[in-house]
Design goal:
single chain; alpha/beta; 5-stranded parallel sheet; two-stranded antiparallel sheet
């Protein structure tokens, strides 16, 4: 984590000022560091890029033209930050749209401090674990691509799924 004093840094995106203040107070009480707040999805993207929080808590219905789902999608794509939705909406179409953003949690309002803490801890853990996995996969990819031996991966029918450059040079395949 990139946080000071090992306190996870959290950006709050909530259009209701009283709810945003309550969430920020809960975060402090739980030992987290709220690093910013905005009511607009467009501003959330900018703040996520500038502040680089460890996590974003995002309402779905926001002020401005962009809703929380669109903002979460952009934040995940450009900043690779975990997003947990805090919302009062659980309709099928909302859930279907939210799932596309691969959220790290979805909490229905009203929620307790215990629910908030649990969702945050699981999201932070999952994000850290996924980062380690991506790093490990990248190391393996580099090893396979740079080895002096020809490498190939085939399915049960013998169709090549993956090959390295050495295999292509030796076999003549492209």
């Amino acid at each position: 984590m990139t946080s000071t004093a090992n306190k996870p840094r959290i950006l709050v995106v909530e259009d209701e000022p009283i709810v945003a203040l309550d969430v920020q107070q809960q975060l402090v009480a739980l030992g987290y560091e709220p690093v910013g707040h905005t009511a607009r999805g467009e501003d959330a993207i900018v703040l996520a890029q500038e502040l680089r929080p460890d996590l974003v808590l995002m309402d779905i219905h926001l002020a401005g033209a962009m809703d929380g789902i669109a903002a979460a999608h952009s934040i995940r794509a450009h900043c690779a930050l975990p997003v947990v939705f805090l919302t009062a909406f659980a309709e099928e179409d909302t859930l279907a749209r939210a799932k596309i953003t691969e959220p790290f949690g979805y909490i229905l309002k009203p929620f307790s401090e215990r629910e908030l803490r649990t969702a945050i801890e699981i999201a932070l853990y999952k994000h850290t674990t996924e980062a380690r996995l991506r790093k490990s996969e990248e190391r393996l990819r580099v090893i396979v691509q740079t080895t002096m031996d020809g490498f190939w991966l085939a399915d049960m029918d013998g169709h090549l799924l993956e090959v390295n450059d050495t295999y292509c040079r030796v076999s003549g395949y492209r």
